[in-house]
Amino acid sequence: MNNFWTLAGFEFKKVFRRRTFPAAILICLGIMAVMVFSSLSGGSFHHSVGRDISKYEAMELDKAVILSNRGYITPELISKAILSNGEMISNKDNYFVNEYGSHLKEDAYIRYILPYEPVIELINNVYAEDKDWLAMDALSLEYMGEDKAVDRLSPEQGENFDSALKAFVRSMVLGEDGLSAAERERNLELIESIETPLYNDYFGGYEAYIMSSKSLAITALFLILLLLSPVFSNEYEERTDQIILCTKNGKGSLCRAKLFTSLVVSVVSAALVMGLSWLAFLLLYGFEGGKVNIQVVNPGCTYPINLLKACLIHFVSVIFACALFGALICFLSAKVKRSTAPVVIMGTLLTIIPMFIWVPMKSSRIIYGLLKFFPANSVSFGFDMSFFEIFGKLFTPYKFIWAVSTLLIAAFSFLAVRSFKKNQPG
Amino acid sequence: MELTVDRVSKLYKNKIAVDRVSLRLHEGVYGLLGENGAGKTSLIRMVCGVLKPSSGSISFDGLDVGDEEYRAALGYLPQDFGYYPEFSAQDFMYYMASLKGLTKPVARAKTRELLELVSLSDVAKKKIRTFSGGMKQRLGIAQTLLNDPKLLVLDEPTTGLDPKERIRFRNLIARLGQNRIVLLSTHIVSDVEHIAGTILLMKNGKMLHQGSLEDITQVIRGKVYQCLMENNEARELTRLYPVINYRSQGEKLLLRFVCQGEPPAGAVKVTAGLEDLYLYYFSESEGHE
Known about the structure:
The complex is a heterodimer of chains A (about 425) and B (about 290).
Chain A: H1 4-17, H2 20-41, H3 55-67, E1 71-72, H4 75-90, E2 95-98, E3 101-104, H5 106-113, H6 117-126, E4 133-135, E5 141-143, H7 149-152, H8 161-175, H9 181-192, E6 199-200, H10 204-228, H11 230-237, H12 241-245, H13 253-285, H14 294-297, H15 307-335, H16 341-352, H17 365-371, H18 375-378, E7 388-390, E8 393-395, H19 397-421
Antiparallel strand pairs in A: 1-6, 2-3, 4-5, 7-8
Chain B: E1 3-12, E2 15-25, E3 28-33, H1 40-47, E4 55-60, E5 63-64, H2 68-72, E6 74-77, H3 89-99, H4 104-117, H5 133-144, E7 151-155, H6 163-176, E8 181-185, H7 189-195, E9 198-203, E10 206-211, H8 213-216, E11 224-229, H9 231-240, E12 243-249, E13 252-258, E14 268-269, H10 274-282
Parallel strand pairs in B: 3-8, 3-9, 6-7, 7-8
Antiparallel strand pairs in B: 1-2, 1-4, 4-5, 9-10, 11-13, 11-14, 12-13
Helix pairs in contact in B: 3-4
């Protein structure tokens, strides 16, 4: 192996002994800690209103109430939710009036709604008469209309909930502009695979993790940017390229060792940032929620998966995105011959700018698809209805992105090595 | 053992750094002399395979400069380069040993031996960022020898060394030249004069002369004079001839200069050395030549 492992060891030493390394790690850990704790300190919990208790205690109390109805969302549970809501709205004592109008009292919410909270939100979405939703990603299907279906439904009407849910998801597919006939067909097939009745549980930990996942993934990208920018450029900057390139292994094993190290640093950085944060969220909020169907969170989602699987898919997507970003940084580092600063600037721009570019699916499918490959977009927690279509064959977006990312990683690695080997010291 | 440089040129945007240089080097020490910008470093980098010639070819015992085996036979000390300040001297040597393809036991043994040779054994575990310029230079010399190179290329190896160290390394280089090709580039003429069997003189990218000290100084033999004169006379002489050395002697100045024609009155002919030749070619005033 021509000293490959020894050289890889030295490359790790170079990364870990750089002065920026402890600073980058500390900043990263700080951001992770802030995200985890701010999700709690900044969160709104029903039990914290008017009570002198900590946010954590309020969350625990909310959780205990929600857990009272964990399990499958059966027609009976739907009926109970409708009845409970009916009981609440029929009693005027549950409301208070001020200059802005009539408002539900927090105690009433805790008593009648909180035990059924996700179920009632589902009912309001699935049985809504107007179609006024705003969907951004897997967690943000927001019903924007005035109609609260739960207020007008009878308990018996909720018995067909499972078929109503699938009809609702189908209507979302058919109402989505920009999808091809084949994509609609594939989505309808997916909907048929959704297992009903849906499973409900307290999913605060998963929810908090998913809400923070994009910011965490971007933190991982910046960590990778800081750690890997000097991989090749530092050799130019320090003029060590001269002694490296004239050695036996300088143009072969060393380049492979540098790429291997970069790949490991990228993957481990991503895995640690995402994995540790995920664990921290679950430790804080509880490990419940993995079995919850994604439709409980976003009834418009066509994927027949639960939150654990969705998070795992997202986790793998972040790993691929970070590995691709690492390879891109290596390429830039090898290409920009002078110093590390331009690599950091370019990497930052490549991460930040695409976050502000949004092209609707119906405007341009090519640009819409291409944007998904930019690091900050490919780490979004999203299971939308679009697919990648190549020669009439449909590919699931995340699987396609994984496959193309692998090819791009190989391409950028090849280009990085070529640039380094062809470097002509000035 | 033969290093062949065949009509090698290097062109930068609008400048010819090396102009059709041809050389055939065998075992021994070769001193490459030339002023700044003469093309020495470009030639050396091309010999080491880190710079691609614009035209021409370089080979060592039939191996092309791009071959891995060529690089395996090479030891190179660049003029200036970083040393991974966070590495210890020992780490740096192990790292270079792995780059040169040495196995771990050999790397350990060679590192110990070479750090001893360059008097860095005591600080082997200290970080390079704590080293002085001279210590770094010694470490640089040590790394070139790790793979026992058949072709040793040293660009300004004695820069930063104190006089005692310089003489020690000069002797070491002379010894190394007994069974390998040593190509030594330097500004320090006395280094070349003492150890180089063959002197290569470069100017404006071209190889002006190559040969032994005897051969090469032939050009100015009988043209070097020494003369004791008043200050105002000395100023006039400086204007007319390349002056190699000034030394005060009482109220007067003792001047050593190169003169092609009739020397001034009182000038005495002296034996020409390499420094005289260097000045003859690289004097600030081109008109002297």
